[in-house]
Each structure stands twice: as C-alpha cells, then as structure tokens.
C-alpha cells in the first residue's frame, strides 16, 4: 500500500462534538497519527448526542452513536482528566512529541490548565496549535459558546434560506445538517496543512491558528454576501429556486420531483424543446437569461405545468440527452443505492467490535498515487489509553493503575 500524504504527522486532538473532530478525522484519513483526548467516564460530548447507537451484543447501553461515529474514525482514544495536574502533565508530555495540537475549548479555558498556546509552545517550539471556536479568539463575542444553528442564524445563512415571502411557511429556515460545522472542519484542515507546509519550507516555526464558525459561515455565503456588499440589499429567500440561471428549481412530476438548473440561453432553448414547447425560447420575455430572471414567476409556472405531464425518469433521460443539468430529489436510501455513488465507493465498511460490518462515509478526496484505503473504526472510549501512555510516555502498569484509581485517566 502507498504511503499516505500525511504519514509521519502526529496530531493531539482535544476537540469535541463536530467541527474539530471532523478536521482531525480528515487528517487521520490522510495518514496522520491522531490521538484523541477524551474525558474519563463520559468522553466526547458527541457520544451523548444520540440515538441511534450501535447495539451491544447483550443489548446493553453504550456511547457509540451516529453523531460520534461520523467524525472520529482513524484515531486512537485516550482518556485524560485535564482538570487534574497529573492530567495536564500527560497532555504537555504528549504535545512535546506532536506536530499539531487541536482544541475547541472556550477562549481562555485551557490557560487555566496550562495548556494554552504559549504553554504548549514552551514544550514544543514548532507546534502548530489550532483553536476552533464559535466566534474566534478576538472580538466582543469571543467568550461565547455556540452551536451550528446559532451561526446559521447570526451569519446570515438563515436569512436567505427558506420559502419565498408570500408562500406558506415563509421565513428564515435552518439548513438540515450541521453544514457550518462541516465547512469549519474543512477550513481547519486547510489551515493546519498550510501551517505545516510553512513550517517545513519557510523557516521551521510553528504558529497559532484561529478558526471559527462565524467567520466560516460569512465567508461561505460568497456571491450572496457579495450581492449585499455591492448593492446594500440582502438577496431574497428563493426556496429551491436558483439565483443565477433561470429557470432553476424543483419541479413536481407525475410520480415525484426533479431539480433543474438551466444555466444559459442554449440550455433554455433545448429544455423548451424537451418539454414540447420550443416556441417558448423565442418569446421576447424569455430569450435572454436576464429576461427570464425578471419574469421568473411566469416561466417557472409554465415549466411547472409542463413537467407535471410525465414521470421523473422520462424527463431526466430526455434532459440528459439534451445536455441540460438535472437530477432526482433523492432521500438517503436512494443516494446510497445510486449506481454512480456505489461506483464511487461513498459507503465503506469497517469491522467494529460492536458491529462486524459497520458502514461509514468515505473521505471525499481521491488520490491517484496515495489513495485513502485504510478506514479504522471510531475508537471506543479510552480504548488506547494504556497503549499510548506506555509507548509514548514510558508509563508502567503500576503508574497507569494509580492514575486510573485517582481519576486522572
């Protein structure tokens, strides 16, 4: 098997819940050795964000739920109580031999334990110390805690998501999954990789990386936010309508729904032909895309009446022949049954102690020379504590037993 891109990189992961763990998982997928630090007894907060949980062989309770499982593969779990001096000593000792230190505690929390950037830098001058928070290390909101939905609201995403004004159920709407957490995880990974490259190529120094959810959601709004910066006006909620090419949106067919995006005038002409109304493409109100945007409600209503006349599969086949982007509105069962998704291998199987063939979502990156093929199950709480303390720090069985008895690990 090829050496993975991040083989040899050592990461100490003190993050919890989703954004930070997702980033550490991405880096672990790419070959980094990720040691996940969890609270003795309860572990990562995500372990309580269930159900559903994996089933124990005896049907007993456990803390391996879907929320935790989605963000913690390819790691080793070590339980350490950082509120105790002996626990702090363990973290500093492990950090001394790491390339990256990741944490997502509230601003200032880790300084109380001697685990802030300046403290860790004293034991490892080259450390890449990455802090993932809701509001960042600076600014009046820095001390606040927050979760994904708060940032969807505060960052403007909810203001442009949801049914159009005047429609039933109109008003701001949250995006279904914790999408800001996921994007923050990607930004975190980008920042860490850039800092590692800078350290290797441009002088060898480490640094502190500040990544937060509020910055991420604002930056992710891209052209929506740029419309406001140019015009001073917030774009309206559009439901499933697009905001570039028109017509674009979900259309109800005889047996279900499809999503259509007409990206240019040529595609519009071909779509009209597929729908059996080629003359629509010559209507002065619809010839150019900008005209169709102005008369959006009218053309969307016309298309709605035409799509209703046949089934989804028929329209998708004809639109594909015409080179017009379209797709079915799939639920998750349909997603993972899709032949293309299966060919791309987006569902991977791992052998978990509680479930012999556990399904996980594969890393979305595909490399020609260093493919990601090693998917190790998300570790059970504290599964690797003894192994890590013995191999990394040289603790013997007696010392480990005493630390466990004292509630340190």
Characterise the protein shown here.
- The chain is α/β, with parallel strands linked by helices.
- The protein folds into two domains: 10-220 and 364-405, Crotonobetainyl-coa:carnitine coa-transferase, domain 1 (Rossmann fold, 3-Layer(aba) Sandwich); 248-329, formyl-coa transferase, domain 3, CATH 3.30.1540.
- Helices cover 36% and strands 14% of the residues.
- It contains 16 helices and eleven strands.
- The strands form three sheets. Strands 3-2-1-4-5-6 form a six-stranded parallel β-sheet, with helices on both faces. A three-stranded antiparallel β-sheet has the order 7-8-9, covered by helices on one side. It has a two-stranded antiparallel sheet with strand order 10-11.
- Helix 1 (19-29) links the parallel strand 1 and strand 2.
- The longest helix is centred in the middle third of the chain and has 23 residues, at 179-201.
- It is elongated and about 85 Å long.
Give a topology summary:
Blueprint: E1 10-14, H1 19-29, E2 33-38, H2 66-69, E3 76-79, H3 85-95, E4 100-103, H4 117-123, E5 128-133, H5 148-154, H6 179-201, E6 207-212, H7 213-220, H8 222-231, E7 248-252, E8 257-261, H9 265-274, H10 289-294, H11 296-307, H12 312-322, E9 326-328, H13 332-337, H14 339-343, E10 347-352, E11 355-361, H15 385-393, H16 397-405
Parallel strand pairs: 1-2, 1-4, 2-3, 4-5, 5-6
Antiparallel strand pairs: 7-8, 8-9, 10-11
Give me the side-by-side strand order of the main sheet: 3-2-1-4-5-6
> In whole angstroms, how far apart are the ends?
35 Å
Whole-number count of domains: 2
CATH uppermost class of the largest domain: Alpha Beta
- Low-confidence stretches at least 5 residues in length (pLDDT < 50)? none
- Give the overall shape, derived from the CA principal axes: elongated
Amount of helix:
25-40%
Q: N-to-C SSE series?
A: EHEHEHEHEHHEHHEEHHHHEHHEEHH
